[in-house]
Specification:
It is built from 17 helices and 27 strands. It is α/β, with parallel strands linked by helices and 609 residues long. The protein folds into three domains: 241 residues, Glutamine Phosphoribosylpyrophosphate, subunit 1, domain 1, CATH 3.60.20; 179 residues, Glucose-6-phosphate isomerase like protein, domain 1 (Rossmann fold), CATH 3.40.50; 147 residues, Glucose-6-phosphate isomerase like protein, domain 1 (Rossmann fold), CATH 3.40.50. The strands form five sheets. Strands 3-2-4-1-10-9-11-15 form an eight-stranded antiparallel β-sheet, covered by helices on one side. The protein is globular, with a radius of gyration of 25 Å. The model has no long low-confidence stretch (mean pLDDT 94). The structure holds 6-O-phosphono-alpha-D-glucopyranose. 6-O-phosphono-alpha-D-glucopyranose (G6P) binds next to helix 9. The site of 6-O-phosphono-alpha-D-glucopyranose has 15 residues, from helix 9.
Length: 609
């Protein structure tokens, strides 16, 4: 969701801001804007639409010229996407701000400002109210003013701020919403995420709750909530510009699909010792794992689907009860959790508002929390009792692929280690399963090479569909949930996933002539049953596409198209069967001419409820 950037240094500030915002496009947005100090005055340019609309506007109406400023991509929450509602927002001429997050009490503040005859409100946004509040309290001391405002506003937010009488200086503050401060040679940056600035510097500081950053003369300095100067630890990003670029692929999504073998290898290799899973560097010991009676996996979107696969695998191997829940439901349903329970939060970004809220909910219940997170130093990673980092590298496409795949690989490691710790499998079996997992990167690579063209072709049969079904049983059902989500996210075709055995209880009435039904049929132990369900829909006119292994005996009459993938251990098949689902979604979106990496209305990182 909204992206914030800021710059102070010798380069053309407008160019740096636009370039950095381009790298945040993946977060999702519907308008963009910048504010730059030009000859000591704040000049603003903003526009509804894409960054290219902003650039075109600046080409005709003039680009702010200067060396310090802030920029923003907005994902509308308060007020429609429009030029007026776009950030930066200003209070007359004294203060300009960009904001990520939500100010919950903005109505009360607006009322207070109106009662005190302060400010003329032009937009529908909560952000503009904060600009006026800053102006209201500003007496020439920016830090004092920001601290005062911090005490009055409620919600999750990160702000970039310019004070007109402090030219060439950018202020930033963070509460909940992520914000990093980049430090280059003679230049400093703020950004919602590291990829935005990686082109200029790999060195950055993580701004913590309530900390204020001041960017001046190319240097960043910091103070805490009480206004005291503080030193912060400089971190270095472990990826470079290339990994945050498309590297010759037409879209980030297909690049990220191809990166999966490496991502899985990088994620699992450091966690395997003498052929056995070893998660002790993440704070997880076999003794600890033995204690848990119940596991709750809580997440949103794709991450929740990785949890669904985790449930099947952990329950099957470790014989521990696993409940999977959507974070926005879990947090409000007063769940029964207590000592000896483990709550696993899965999140690529580590910043998803609902998933983050679950951590607070669990505190004080006696349950332990384990975060499985991709972004280092993110809020969820820092707040959980234990953390397993997935090493997918930056994932830019909104539709998650490699992050899901590495989440699956961690689910397996955890399941194997837990099953062994609980005495459900012996060392030999644990080593055998672990070895199969170690081999999956190679199999994933073979699968991509083998079926990419097939999926490209089959996707041409989907583009005219209004609606389709994904079906499967057991692990295939868990997988089909992700296949269906992937497809609908980027192809805009209505799609639902259904447990194949449940079709007859209602959904089969939706089948009409030619309606696509994609069946995931990789679980040989229940293959016969799935085939019966495929035949049932086929008999009612469905166009059936079956994803199965190379040896599966599928009746030609049952399937219009068969996508065959390599066969590995049945329990591990999701690591391979995910690939055709991703490719089908990708090529359907490409064939429909959609914006694959930035699907409409979606955001990569959902930092508000
Ligand atoms: C958004 C993204 C999804 C993602 C979900 C959870 O909806 O578009 O791709 O799965 O958020 O995000 P997280 O960062 O917590 O995994």
């Amino acid at each position: 969701m909204c992206g914030i950037v800021g710059y102070v240094g010798p380069r053309d500030c407008s160019d740096v801001l636009v370039s950095a915002l381009t790298k945040l496009e993946y977060r999702g947005y519907d308008s963009a804007g910048i504010a730059v100090f030009e000859n000591g005055k704040i000049e603003v340019a903003k526009s509804k639409g894409r960054l290219t609309d902003l650039v075109n506007k600046m080409e005709t109406q003039g680009k702010p010229q200067g060396h310090a400023g802030i920029g923003h991509t907005r994902w509308a929450t308060h007020g429609e996407p429009s030029d007026i509602n776009s950030h930066p927002h200003s209070s007359g001429r004294r203060v300009s701000i960009v904001h990520n997050g939500i100010i919950e009490n903005y109505k009360d503040i607006k009322k207070f400002l109106i009662e005190n005859e302060h400010g003329e409100f032009l937009s529908d946004t909560d952000t503009e109210v904060v600009a006026h509040l800053l102006d209201y309290y500003y007496d020439g001391n920016p830090i004092k003013c920001i601290r005062k405002v911090l005490h009055e506003i409620r919600g999750s937010f990160a702000l970039g701020i310019l004070f007109a009488d402090r030219p060439e200086t950018v202020y930033a503050v963070r509460c909940e919403s992520p914000l990093i401060v980049g430090q280059g040679k003679g230049e400093a940056f703020i950004a919602s995420d590291v990829p935005a600035i990686i082109k200029y510097t790999k060195d950055y500081f993580l701004l913590e709750y309530g900390e204020i950053a001041v960017l001046k003369n190319g240097l960043a300095s910091f103070c805490d909530l009480h206004g005291r100067m503080i030193e912060k630890e400089l971190k270095t990003a472990d990826f470079d510009e290339d990994s945050a670029e498309k590297g010759g692929y037409p879209h980030f999504m297909i690049k990220e699909i191809h990166e999966q073998p490496t991502a899985v290898k990088t994620t699992i290799t450091p966690r395997i010792e003498c052929g056995m899973p070893n998660l002790s560097e993440c704070g997880i010991t076999p003794e600890e794992l033995k204690k848990f009676n119940n596991i709750f996996i809580v997440a949103c979107g794709t991450a929740m689907h990785a949890g669904m696969v985790g449930k099947y695998v952990i329950e099957k191997l470790a014989r521990v009860s696993v409940t999977v829940d959507i974070a926005s439901e879990f947090r409000y349903r007063d769940p029964l959790i207590g000592e000896n329970d483990l709550v696993i939060i899965i999140s690529q970004s580590g910043e998803t508002a609902d998933s983050k809220a679950v951590l607070n909910l669990v505190k004080g219940t006696g349950a332990k929390t384990l975060a499985i997170v991709n972004v280092k130093g993110s809020s969820i990673a820092r707040e959980a009792d234990m953390v397993i980092y997935t090493h997918a590298g930056p994932e830019i496409a909104v539709a998650s692929t490699k992050a899901y795949m590495v989440q699956l690989s961690v689910m397996y490691l955890l399941a194997f280690q837990m099953a062994f710790a609980k005495g459900r499998i012996d060392e030999e079996e644990c080593q055998r399963l672990t070895l199969e997992l170690v081999r999956t990167p190679e199999v994933i690579e073979q699968t991509i090479n083998r079926i990419e063209n097939v999926c490209r072709y089959v996707s041409t049969k989907l583009i005219t569909a209004d609606s389709l079904l994904y079906i499967g049983r057991g692990l295939d059902y868990a997988l089909s949930m992700e296949g269906s989500l992937k497809l609908k996210e980027i192809s805009y075709i209505h799609s639902e996933s259904y447990a194949a055995g449940e079709l007859k209880h209602g959904t089969i009435s939706l089948i009409t002539d030619g309606m696509p039904v994609i069946a995931v049929a990789t679980q040989n132990s229940i293959l016969e049953k799935t085939i019966s369900n495929i035949k049932e829909v086929k008999a009612r006119g469905a166009m059936t596409i079956v994803i199965c292994d190379i040896q599966a005996d599928i009746d030609k009459e049952a399937a219009d198209y068969i996508i065959r993938i390599p066969k590995i251990n049945e329990t591990l098949m999701p690591m391979v069967a995910t690939v055709p689902m991703q490719l089908l979604a990708y090529y359907t979106s490409v064939n429909k001419g959609n914006d694959v990496d930035k699907p409409r209305n979606l955001a990569k990182s959902v930092t508000v409820e």
